Amino acid sequence: MCGIVGYIGYKQAASFLLDGMSKLEYRGYDSAGVAVMENGRIRVDKCVGRLDALRQKLAGRMPVGTMGIGHTRWATHGRPSDRNAHPHTDPSGNFVVVHNGIIENYLSIKEELLAKGHCFLSETDTEVVAHLMADLYDGDFESTVKKVLQRIKGSYSLVFMCQMEPDKIICTKKDNPLIIGLGEGENYIASDIPAIINETRRTFIMSDGEIATVTADSVWVQDINGVPISKKVFEVSWNAEAAEKGGFEHFMLKEIYEQPKSMRDTMTGRVDAEALCIKFPELNWSPEEMAAVDRIFIVACGTAYHAGIVGKYYLEQLAKVPVEVDIASEFRYRHPLVDGNSLCIVISQSGETSDTLAALREAKRLGARTLAVTNVVGSSIARDADQVVYTYAGPEIAVASTKAYTTQLLAMLMFAIYIGRLRESLPEEKAKELVKGLTLIPEQIHQMLENVDQIKVFARKYGSCEDAFFIGRSLDYAVALEGALKLKEISYIHAEAYAAGELKHGTLALIVEGVPVIVLATQEDVYDKTVSNLQEVKAREAVVIAMGFVGDENLAKYADHVIYIPRTGKYLAPLLAVLPLQLLAYYAALTRGCDVDKPRNLAKSVTVE
Ligand code: AGP
Question: What percent of the chain has pLDDT over 90?
């Protein structure tokens, strides 16, 4: 939920810290701060607001020093304010800490420290950690950190500095991401790769419970008991601009246009275009193990949850396995009937969503085999799941997920075909037809992105509306859910998705003259009924934007506008149908002057429950 950076070396720390934080603002941006070791003393500068507010505060008085840490915040405990911004210190200023996550037992520790006479300046859980450092300090920085870690409970990435040992930074993590970038005579610390990618591609991906002591020339990793841990260098394959905007006005538009590539990359090594079959070399479950699965649970949040709903159709209809789909924050509280014959698939772009991570751990506790579908190599969810199918969408920076969603759909479809063949519930010919259709998708998406003028017109024409409805049946309804979320989360238009057949049971009361209704009509087996629902809303004077396949002359008879997508099979249609909805949301947000990449109240990676 927050962005952390650290630097130790021979250059001025502040410039890297600010630059690195700018690459992590998507992780949270309600306040920011830096701490730099300046002439033997730790100097802290922080303030509420975006990173620019901190830059302005530092203008003309940048901290001077070659070691420092920085933080961009998304509020969890304590509202966004100067005092609640990180870094946090103990009263003496000898200890400084930045933190991502939640210290669940901070209140009891705070009471204990208050009784000892500590005074706190902020409402945060993080400040308690700085005070605890001071309270437990035994003359040794490393051993004090270990003592603190034995006291605190919760989820965290923590990065510490200590005035008495000004030549090292110590960092550790549990359930939140943290990486170390390896340089020559300098080293970097960050929550995520984009912050360091311009400095180095050689990284250590920290694992839970590891404690790293980072100096300019060394990185020493150990566990809480002091047992040394040797880390494998992870070479980042992304090039620098991959994490930048690449010439587009916003990350979101760049990421929408990256979908032909992200689809191809996610197919690579899995789609055999010659044999027209699917392989998952990374999976090592045997056919017998897969055949033994009698129920699949798909668990995720937000857009990933919508991908899970599509995945349910795929797995049930192609692999003939019963599937339950849950919103992660609901999953463990409904006491799901998960057992050793269950497969739990968690979908998460960031691989750090706390609700999804918690659901994954619950499914494991109940005995399920677990599979993560995630976009971030080495993420917490990737490391906790038994097996992982990575989507290779590359860094997704915009808060609104686009290319991650379509690669998640692709991963679910490929997995359903794969499992369907393993379980002999999907005829080979049907599988070949699906795979052939898959190979055409990247180019079909490319074609669709070549001409988006019609979408721009709709966005300008209807972008001032305060309500919008997305309706469809079957897989069209599943995609409608994603279309509505895209529109509402970046344009702030109150958009709702509805099963087209359900409208007459209440929501039709909201369909009045001029309200835009997007009707998805790509599913042949429910097409006629969908057209009837289209006429239902038209009869109430709604403005209807229909979506159907090229060549469908019927929709134009009833709809005010029609968006045509390339003709493809029913199961592949979601991979294409979502494109116009992503673009509609993007251009509507522009029309309304919204901050497309960083919508209000939201953050890219929700690492609090
Ligand atoms: C998607 O546009 C939203 N930003 C949000 O719903 C997101 O999909 C959700 O928070 C899940 O994130 P994850 O895929 O990283 O777990």
Answer: 85
SS3 content of the chain, % helix, strand, coil (to 5): 40, 25, 40
Q: Does 589 score more than 70 pLDDT?
A: yes
pTM of the model: 0.76
Q: What is the CA radius of gyration of the chain?
A: 25
Co-location of 197 and 286 in the same domain: no
Total domains in the chain come to 3
Confidence class of residue 27 from pLDDT cuts 50, 70 and 90? confident
- With a 6 A CB cut-off, is 191 part of the ligand 1 pocket? no
Residues 88, 90, 91, 94, Cα dihedral to 10°: -110
CB atoms within 10 A of CB 39: 8
Is residue 2 annotated as part of the catalytic site, yes or no?
Answer: yes
| In a shared domain, residues 269 and 397 | yes
Question: Based on the number of CB atoms within 10 Å of its own CB, is 587 exposed (0-12), middle (13-18) or buried (19 or more)?
Answer: buried
The reply to whether 237 falls in a domain is yes
409-435 pLDDT, tens digit each: 999 999 999 999 999 999 999 999 999
CA 405–ligand 1 middle distance (angstroms): 9
Q: Examine residue 474 and state whether it is found in any structural domain, yes or no.
A: yes
Which residues are CB-neighbours of 577 under 8 A, at least 6 positions away?
476, 479, 520, 522, 547, 565
pLDDT above 80 (res 286): yes
Say whether both 377 and 266 belong to one domain: yes
Residue 556 pLDDT grade (very low, low, confident, very high; cuts 50, 70, 90): very high
Query: What range does the domain containing 14 cover?
Result: 3-244
Domain end position, chosen among 215, 244, 273? 244
Identify whether 604 is a catalytic site residue: yes
Write the pLDDT tens digit of every residue in 232-266: 999 988 776 665 665 688 999 999 999 998 999 89
Mutate to test the pocket of ligand 1, among 401, 412, 600 (most ligand atoms within 8 A of CB): 401
| Cα gap 18→52, rounded to integer Å | 9
Q: Which tens digits make up the pLDDT trace of 89-136?
A: 999 999 999 999 888 889 999 999 999 999 999 989 999 999 999 999
Q: Please indicate whether residue 304, judged by its CB atom, sits closer than 6 Å to ligand 1.
A: yes
Nearest atom (ligand 1) to Cα of 485: 2
Same domain membership, residue 375 and residue 264: yes
**Residue 2's pLDDT band (boundaries 50, 70, 90)?**
confident
- Cβ of 89 closer than 6 Å to ligand 1, yes or no, is no
Give, as one character, the DSSP assignment of residue 198.
T
CA distance 67 to 161: 9
375 within domain boundaries: yes
C-beta 349 within 6 A of ligand 1: yes
Could you say which of 146, 312, 538, 604 is catalytic? 604
- Residue 542 within any structural domain of the chain: yes
Note whether 307 and 372 are same-domain residues: yes
Find the 308 Cα to ligand 1 centroid distance in Å. Answer: 12
- State in Å: Cα 220 to ligand 1 middle: 34
CA distance 258 to 252: 10
pLDDT of residue 378: 73
Whether residue 599 has its Cβ less than 6 Å from ligand 1: no
